[in-house]
Amino acid sequence: MKFATRTVHSGYDSNEHNRAVMPPIYQTSCFSHQHIGEELPFSYARVSQPTRDALERCLAALENARFGLAFSSGMAAIDAVLRATLKPGDEVVAVADLYGGAYRLLTQVMTAIGIKVTFADLSAPASLTPLLNEKVRLLWLETPSNPLLGLVDIAALSELAHAAGVRVAVDNTFATPYLQNPITLGADIVVHSATKYLGGHSDVLLGLVAVDDEALQQAIHFIQKSAGAVPGPQDCFLTLRGIKTLHLRMDRHCDNAERVAGWLDGHPAVEKVFFPGLAGHPGHALALRQMRRMGGIVSFYLKDDSFEAASRVAERLRYFALAESLGGVESLINHSYTMSHGAMPPEHKAALGIRKGLLRLSLGVEDADDLLADLEQALA
Ligand SMILES: Cc1ncc(COP(=O)(O)O)c(C=O)c1O
Q1: Active site residue 374
Q2: Which residue of 146, 234, 275, 354 lies most exposed, with the fewest beta carbons within 10 A?
Q3: Helix axis angle, 74-85 relative to 214-227, nearest 10°?
């Protein structure tokens, strides 16, 4: 089945649900047993329930994996993966350039339970090898990264990590399964903030994990049911509905991002544009190999690297809401220094290049001419 057909049909069999065309919202916490000891497909909604099950199966199909698992947020999904794969005394190597919330979880929550984290620039895969030792159990990748759109080579890094017995997890939020499939490239675990493109309409908070290995699925499901950070049926339904148009929306997000990145590149108020589709981007050749298209996010430095200049642009824009998120049908602008990466210490931000004059655009599905006209008046 081709991708566009999978987004519409995967994970759900209407014959099991009174032939309802859309997966019903099972708004129930429990399912009744006819006698003690009866084995039921669903018993208690924290452990599993049918609307969530349809979403989990759907994500697995989109990521070419055997299993999907749904959580109450992207962060809950990341937390479950870390807890399922690491124990006190273990170490994780993570890309330095990653979402601020993931940085906070790794540095403040995981280190507090005895897990050591090493951040590294892995844009050259060979830089991984000297960081591996017998205590490293997990490699954490995010590609393209938030907010600087840095890329790492999933296939090459997975090969090096696996040779040392290290599992590989990839945050695939920015690319989505439409543009990139980490498990097909050799990774073990894929994580999504489905709050972004998979949900796609800025109306749901949800996290997803896909794995191919049954032992991993069981370990992550054990955390899912034990800690209980699961999404409710309404949120699963909204995400399933969003996924049905993922391929259509992503193509428009990508079209708009290409237009906007090209337009910003060389604009007199702009110092530098970050977009893997630009030939000057350091990950451009890798993006052409690893991704089907370049994604819907464009970040840029203003020449005037100040809060005031960034605020002026954000406040003048009419179609881009100044908001923390991304991946919805409406365009958004984010000031990474204070918003998505507010939790990152200033020295880590400085080392990465997350400056006060950095703005991240999430291109929606509006008409590109209107978005360009809006940017033109805001940057004038
Ligand atoms: C790349 C990435 N991963 C994970 C998350 C966390 O997801 P959530 O906000 O759904 O918890 C985000 C949120 O912005 C993100 O951008």
Answers
A1: no
A2: 234
A3: 120
Contact 211, 168 (CB under 8 A): no
Query: How many Å apart are CA 228 and CA 213, to the nearest integer?
Result: 22
Element (H, E) at 120: strand 116-120
Rounded Cα gap, residues 57 and 79, in angstroms: 21
Of 323, 239, 215, the C-alpha closest to 58 is: 239
272 is catalytic: no
Q: From ligand 1's centre to the CA of 88, what distance in Å?
A: 25
**Predicted confidence (pLDDT) per residue in 310-334, tens digit:** 999 999 999 999 999 999 999 999 9
Q: How far is the CA of 152 from the centre of ligand 1 (A)?
A: 18
Which domains are seen in the chain, by residue range? 3-243 (3.40.640.10), 246-379 (3.90.1150.10)
HSE at residue 352, side-chain half, CA atoms within 13 A, is 31
What residue's CA is closest to ligand 1, atom 8? 74
Residue 92: closest CA among 160, 193, 143, 161? 161
Order of strands across the sheet with 167-171?
67-71, 207-211, 189-193, 167-171, 136-142, 91-95, 116-120
Rounded to a whole number of angstroms, the CA Rg of the chain reads 21
188 pLDDT band (50/70/90 cuts)?
Answer: very high
